[in-house]
Design brief:
The complex is a heterodimer. Helix content of chain A is about 70%, strand content about 0%. Chain A is mostly helical. The longest helix of chain A has about 35 residues, at about 10-45. The relative contact order of chain A is 0.14. In chain B, the strands form 4 sheets. Chain B has a 3-stranded antiparallel beta sheet. A 3-stranded antiparallel beta sheet of chain B has the order 8-9-10. In chain B, helix 6 (about 175-200) packs antiparallel against helix 11. The longest helix of chain B has 30 residues, at about 105-135. Chain B is α+β, with helices and mostly antiparallel strands. The chains are: A mainly alpha, B alpha+beta. The interface of A and B includes residues 213 and 301 of A.
């Protein structure tokens, strides 16, 4: 088997693996929407999708087919090229992060030395999709949504990076594979225990970064109708949704890698290499869904206040504290 | 390439023009067809101008061409969430014209139905208010219980929303044992359900942040703006028509009028939550009193037989050359000339009906004072200086129903 793999030319191999990874992630994302609908329905005492296929299991596929068939309306007066490219920017930037996450000890698509920085850069770039779509849509609601998104993503980006920096300090590397290894060899086994504050800051910022409840202001339905993608229809509309869910998956995967010990578990299960990684990932995704069913939405200025007055100082203090301990304990 | 919305534009006087936005009439959170014309500075509201009339059906004018019982059917469509309360207001006015005395059992049933309408209206208010602020789960919890109430309404009179159950001189049908048992079960379970909603949002930090200090109305302003109902009581003025001018059986039952302190959105929320409990208490007491009046009439003896005409109306065989068809026969009773005024505490505020009769079969003039109309006029005042997101909370806290406003 390994002989066979080594015979494939390297670029083709990378392409194949990336293709498989992308499709697996897409499947995960599709069923994440299904899980979200089912779980929230359960929390809200209703049934959720149950018509298409057994227990509604084919619902995500039906949704995709429906959205592909829909007419792609481009309203009069929009900036056409930007309007068309914005959802792609969102999706590509949100989705590519998964390539850098070590899913297993021997499975990481691209083992970059600055992996963490790269993911952060990608997630900042994905805000461009939102801003550009809001700006190009020729609609006031979309513009307001885009403005909200830009302010929100920029301020929460800082808190998030600071939280991750303390992890980098502890591990001594930007390479995600090395972070997992350093974590497992540290006395705590996972960084969640020494870096509880950083984990909290990261999770809250990740909610804001992916525009999820309670920070879903850019797409607040009851305020801005649908926010930045109010003018989109058909598959372009679906791309924004996909980007949001891809963002959730990547952020959760990053949290698993940096705080929860990555693919390592208390014991190894032979034959199921991704078990621990997926288990942790799904637990975090469940947290996202749970929050959505529970919390109301923040107001714009309160959101900014929370970011700048609570999360950034917390992350900074945590960073200094970590650096101080690191300096004096070694 | 034509570019898009301009972020800021220099006006003629050289200052930056404000960002104007049209919210509604098909915006998801304007509860129907309210249109708000906003002038924004960033996200801060400089000016908010409500524009109404998208649901105008001319109820007042239509009433002048319809008989009194038909007017009751129109009254269902005013505040379609609490139509039983509207029926009561209309009937009270018409009964004053006829100087009818309504039997006790009918008055008790009217009280129960009115309070059921209040609970169902407040539940819908809580559901949409929470949904607007982003708490999705409360919405479905409230609808679960509202569904129960509506099915009880269905057992009482066959309709779920537009009941026309109350009629001039009494009520249309008597309560059966089954309905009383079902209501009893509801009153026992409902207080726990209220606790359920409160655990979801009452101590939620985000909910508190979004409602405390938003749209503060001090008592004097509240009076000047003409606010009534829970919105007025949230500002600390204990004005409640049920206490001040008791109608139906409200003088027989014990209940409190909850008031707020600060007059902000949170206080109004608290007032309504406490009112839910009081309504539950009133229904409970009335159900006990219903037992005492078992078998008593539910309709005044001299009540006009309004629902079923004594004779079938027949038009002349041939149309009159000038007047069209002329109906013959005297079926609809004539109401003595005079004028009457009745006001009730509807779930949204004070609902008043003023009717003038010239002795004919139709009201000569019917004027309805609806709470939502007055509350919408206060929107501009309340929204000034707040943010767009707060505007949603303000629409929610005023509990606007556009059918009530536009008539």
């Amino acid at each position: 088997m390994s002989d066979f793999i080594t015979q494939i030319p390297y670029p083709l191999l990378i392409f194949l693996v990336a293709f498989i990874l992308l499709n697996l992630t897409l499947l995960n994302v599709a069923y994440l929407t299904y899980a979200e609908r089912k779980l929230i329905a359960r929390m809200q005492q209703r049934l959720g999708p149950n018509r298409v296929g057994p227990r509604g299991l084919l619902q995500p596929i039906a949704d995709v087919v429906k959205l592909l068939q829909k007419e792609d309306i481009i309203p009069y007066g929009v900036d056409r090229s930007i309007f068309k490219i914005a959802p792609l920017i969102s999706l590509v930037c949100a989705g590519s992060g998964i390539a850098l996450i070590p899913l297993w000890e021997r499975f990481v698509l691209s083992n970059l030395n600055v992996g963490l920085l790269f993911i952060l850069a990608l997630s900042s770039l994905s805000a461009y999709g939102v801003i550009l779509s809001g700006w190009a849509s020729n609609s006031r609601y979309a513009l307001l949504g885009g403005l909200r998104a830009s302010a929100q993503v920029i301020s929460y980006e800082i808190a998030m990076s600071l939280a991750l920096l303390s992890v980098v300090l502890m591990a001594g590397s930007f390479n995600l594979q090395d972070i997992v290894k350093a974590q497992v060899s540290s006395p705590f086994k996972i960084y969640l225990i020494p870096q509880l504050v950083a984990f909290f800051v990261f999770m809250v910022s990740a909610l804001a970064e992916t525009n999820r409840v309670p920070f879903d202001l850019p797409e607040a339905e009851t305020e801005l109708v649908a926010g930045y993608f109010v003018e989109y229809s058909g598959i372009r509309f679906a791309l924004f949704y996909l980007a949001e869910y891809f963002g959730m998956v990547v952020m959760s995967a990053l949290a698993v890698t940096c705080f929860l010990g990555g693919y390592k578990g208390p014991f190894t299960i032979p034959g199921v290499p991704f078990f621990w990684f997926l288990l942790k990932l799904y637990l975090l995704l469940f947290f996202y869904i749970w929050v959505r069913a529970t919390l109301p939405r923040y107001r714009y200025d309160q959101l900014m206040g929370l970011g700048w007055k609570v999360l950034i100082p917390l992350a900074l203090i945590n960073l200094f504290f970590t650096a101080f301990l690191k300096l004096y304990l070694n | 390439m034509s570019l898009c919305v301009e972020v800021s534009k220099k006006g003629q006087d050289g200052r930056e023009e404000l960002f104007t936005i049209n919210m509604g009439p098909h915006h998801p959170s304007t509860h129907g067809v309210l249109r708000l014309f906003l002038e924004l500075d960033g996200e801060t509201i400089i000016k908010c101008e409500p524009i109404i009339g998208y649901l105008h059906r001319g109820v007042e004018k239509l009433s002048e061409n319809l008989g009194y019982p038909q007017t009751l059917v129109l009254s269902d469509r005013l505040d379609y969430i609490a139509s039983a309360a509207n029926n009561v207001a209309f009937c009270l006015a018409f009964e004053k014209l006829l100087s009818l005395k309504v039997p006790r059992r009918a008055r008790l049933i009217r009280t129960i139905v009115g309070e059921m309408a209040r609970i169902s209206s407040h539940l819908l208010w809580l559901a949409t208010h929470a949904l607007d602020i982003g708490a999705m789960t409360v919405f479905l919890y409230c609808f679960r219980d509202r569904e129960w109430l509506l099915s009880i309404f269905e057992k009482i009179c066959g309709a779920r929303l537009t009941h026309t159950y109350v009629r001039i001189g009494g009520v249309r049908l008597d309560f059966t044992e089954e309905i009383i048992e079902e209501l009893k079960k509801f009153t026992e379970v409902f207080p726990e359900r209220i606790l359920e909603y409160e655990t979801l949002i009452d101590v939620n930090r985000i909910w508190l942040k979004r409602t405390k200090g938003i749209a503060v109305v001090d008592p004097e302003t509240a009076l000047n703006l003409g606010l009534t109902g829970p919105v007025l009581r949230g500002s600390g003025i204990p004005y409640d028509v049920r206490k001040f001018r008791p109608y139906d059986a409200y003088d027989e039952v014990e209940f409190e009028v909850p008031v707020g302190k600060n007059g902000d959105t949170y206080d109004r929320y608290r007032v309504r939550m406490l009112e839910l409990r009081q309504s539950n208490r009133i229904i409970k007491q009335c159900l006990e009193k219903l037992r005492e009046t078992e078998g008593e009439p539910i309709l005044a003896e001299e009540a006009p037989d309004l629902l079923l005409p004594t004779k079938v109306r027949e038009p002349e065989p041939k149309p009159h050359p000038k007047k069209g068809f002329i109906f013959t026969g005297k079926e609809v009773p004539v109401i003595p000339p005079g004028e009457a005024f009745a006001s009730i505490e509807s779930p949204k505020g004070e609902l008043a009906v003023y009717v003038i009769s010239d002795g004919g079969t139709n009201p000569w003039r019917l004027r309805i004072r609806t709470p939502s109309f007055v509350h919408i006029s206060a929107m501009g005042e309340l929204a000034k200086g707040h943010m767009v997101a707060d505007l949603i909370a303000i629409i929610g806290t005023l509990d606007l129903v556009l059918g009530d406003c536009d008539r």
